[in-house]
Specification:
10 strands, ten-stranded mixed β-sheet, 5 helices, Alpha-Beta Plaits, alpha+beta, 2 domains
C-alpha cells in the first residue's frame, strides 16, 4: 500500500544550487531523494512547500513523498539523516492523508533575513548572513516596512525570470528589528515572488542608509517597475523559517525562528 509521508527539514543552502533537482545532482532535492531511496529501496520524488534559491537556507522546509515501504517514522528521520550530508537534516517525519500536498496545501510562508551591519564583512558568518558596511537607520526601515503590509502588486520586487501567475500577494507580516550589530528582517505572506524577499531587503537597506525616504517604498509599490528598485540583496542571509498549514493536517512543528542572538 502506498503511504504518503511528510517531512520537516533544516538545511544550510550555501553549498547547493538551490532546492530544485538539477542534472548535475547538486541540489538539496537530489541529496534528499538519494537518501530516501536508500531507505525505501525504490525510486521516488519529493515535493516541497517552496523552491529556495541557490545559497538560501531553511529552518523549516516541509516536503512530502509517497512510498511502498513500511518503516517506523523514526527510521525516516535517523536512517535518512545517516545518508545525508551534515548540511541537510530531517527534523521529523509523519504519515499524512494521501490528499496532503506540501506545496498546494501551504497557506503561508515565512522568511527571515539576517543582516550583519559593521565596517568589515564577518568571517565566521560568511554564507550565513548578509552584510552591509554603512550605518543604517532602524526607524526609517521600520517605517518603510509598514508600507509592505496588506495586499499589493509586488512587481517592483519581482525577478525577471519569475513564473508566478500573478504579482499580487498579501503580506501578513513585514518587520525589522535591531539586535546587537545586526538586523533581522521578518516577512510572512501566502506566497512570494521569485527574489521578492531579497529585493525588499535591498530596498529597505537603501532607505536605511539614507538613499531614499521611507515613503519611497510606497512609490516603488505603486510603480510596479523593477527597474526603479535597488539591487537584489545577497542570498546568504535568507532563511525559510516556516510554512503554515490548516490544523486538519495535524503536522508537527512547521514554524521556527532564527536564533539571532546567538549569531551576532
Amino acid at each position: 500500500m502506498v503511504v504518503r509521508i511528510a517531512l520537516g527539514l533544516e538545511y544550510d543552502g550555501a553549498k547547493y544550487c538551490g532546492w530544485q533537482s538539477q542534472a548535475n545532482g547538486g541540489a538539496i532535492q537530489d541529496c534528499l531523494e538519494h537518501a530516501l531511496q536508500k531507505m525505501a529501496n525504490h525510486t521516488l520524488r519529493v515535493s516541497a512547500a517552496g523552491r529556495t534559491d541557490a545559497g538560501v537556507h531553511a529552518l523549516s522546509q516541509i516536503v512530502h513523498f509517497d512510498t511502498l515501504t513500511t518503516r517506523p517514522m523514526s527510521a525516516w528521520v535517523r536512517g535518512v539523516n545517516a545518508n545525508l550530508p551534515d548540511s541537510i537534516r530531517v527534523l521529523w517525519a509523519q504519515a499524512v492523508d494521501a490528499r496532503f500536498h506540501a506545496r498546494f496545501d501551504a497557506q503561508q510562508r515565512s522568511y527571515q533575513y539576517l543582516l550583519i551591519n559593521q565596517p568589515v564583512a564577518p568571517a565566521v558568518m560568511a554564507g550565513k548572513a548578509g552584510w552591509f558596511h554603512l550605518p543604517l537607520d532602524i526607524g526609517a526601515m521600520q517605517f518603510a516596512a509598514e508600507y509592505l503590509l496588506g495586499q499589493h502588486d509586488f512587481s517592483a520586487f519581482r525577478a525577471a525570470e519569475c513564473q508566478a501567475k500573478s504579482p499580487v500577494k498579501f503580506m501578513h507580516r513585514a518587520s525589522v528589528v535591531q539586535i546587537g550589530n545586526g538586523y533581522l528582517f521578518d516577512f510572512c505572506a501566502g506566497a512570494f515572488l521569485h527574489h521578492q524577499v531579497r529585493n525588499m531587503v535591498g530596498a529597505l537597506v537603501y532607505i536605511g542608509k539614507g538613499k531614499y525616504k521611507p515613503e519611497y517604498m510606497e512609490t516603488l509599490l505603486a510603480s510596479r517597475d523593477r527597474r526603479l528598485s535597488p539591487p537584489t540583496f545577497s542570498p546568504a542571509g535568507l532563511y525559510l523559517t516556516g510554512v503554515g498549514y490548516d490544523a486538519m493536517w495535524d503536522l508537527p512543528e512547521t514554524e521556527r525562528t532564527l536564533n539571532f542572538g546567538c549569531l551576532v
